[in-house]
Amino acid sequence: DAKTTQPPSMDCAEGRAANLPCNHSTISGNEYVYWYRQIHSQGPQYIIHGLKNNETNEMASLIITEDRKSSTLILPHATLRDTAVYYCIVRVRGNTGKLIFGQGTTLQVKP
Amino acid sequence: GAVVSQHPSWVICKSGTSVKIECRSLDFQATTMFWYRQFPKQSLMLMATSNEGSKATYEQGVEKDKFLINHASLTLSTLTVTSAHPEDSSFYICSATRTGRNEKLFFGSGTQLSVL
């Protein structure tokens, strides 16, 4: 599985957009980009995933560059409850594909 | 959305005893489930892939005789930590994906194991 690189930490003001970058320069054509987040002492929560097109759901938007070597997760209006560790993961297609977690980005939303 | 239930949420046991953790997919069938371990202030580490009706596949460095995995049905996988020691104290998390569908993995809420 391809590895990802994320900044270890980021701050964001409450109500502003949080843009979390992820580098996955060795991603292969059959791998999706997934984003999860983990709030302290809980299981990871699914946010969004995509292959090559930009995706949006009720939680966030995912922007994937044309060469697929990097992506950005956008939380449009961050709240204090969005404070968490955010993980960017690439996963092989197919329901047996493993999720291998990196170190993630600790996002601190400040009032 | 799909729900993965993990039980117990926390357990304290004496050194040398065995502890079983259950992971259930409540409203979907899961041919494959995954078990993770997480130490404080660290990321999740994949321990093993649990396949219904067959032997689990363990990641390198994970002792299969220490961490017994059973996936006897499409909705239940269990992880048994045998002869637990204090260094096995950790947060254990399971995840599952719907059979036949390539999509997101759903995670349980985790089990905090403390071995005295």
Specify the oligomeric state: heterodimer
Rg of chain A, nearest Å: 13 Å
Strand % of chain B is over 45%
Q: What's the overall geometry of chain A?
A: globular
Radius of gyration of chain B: 13 Å
How much is the average pLDDT of chain B?
Answer: 92
Helix and strand pattern of chain B: EEEEEEEEEEE
Largest interface here, residues on each chain?
A-B, 23 and 31 residues
The helix fraction of chain B, in percent, is: under 10%
The number of distinct β-strands of chain A equals 9
What string gives the helices and strands of chain A in order?
EEEEEEEEE
Coarse structural class of chain A:
mainly beta
Strand arrangement within the widest β-sheet of chain A reads 1-9-8-3-4
Weakly predicted, low-confidence segments of chain B: none
**Major sheet of chain A:** 5 strands, mixed
What are the low-pLDDT stretches of chain A, counting only 5+ consecutive residues below 50?
A: none
Main β-sheet description of chain B = 7 strands, mixed
SS-based class of chain B: mainly beta
Q: What can you see in these coordinates?
A:
- The complex is a heterodimer of chains A (111) and B (116).
- Chain A is mainly beta and 111 residues long.
- Chain A has no helices and nine strands.
- Chain B is mainly β and 116 residues long.
- Chain B is 0% helix and 51% strand.
- In chain B, the strands form two sheets. In chain B, strands 2, 4, 5, 6, 9, 10 and 11 form a seven-stranded mixed sheet that branches.
- The radius of gyration of chain B is 13 Å and the shape is globular.
- Chain B starts with a strand and ends with a strand.
- The A-B interface holds A 34, 36, 38, 41-46, 49, 87, 93-104 and B 1, 4, 6, 31-32, 34, 36, 43-46, 49, 51, 91, 93, 95, 97-110, 112.
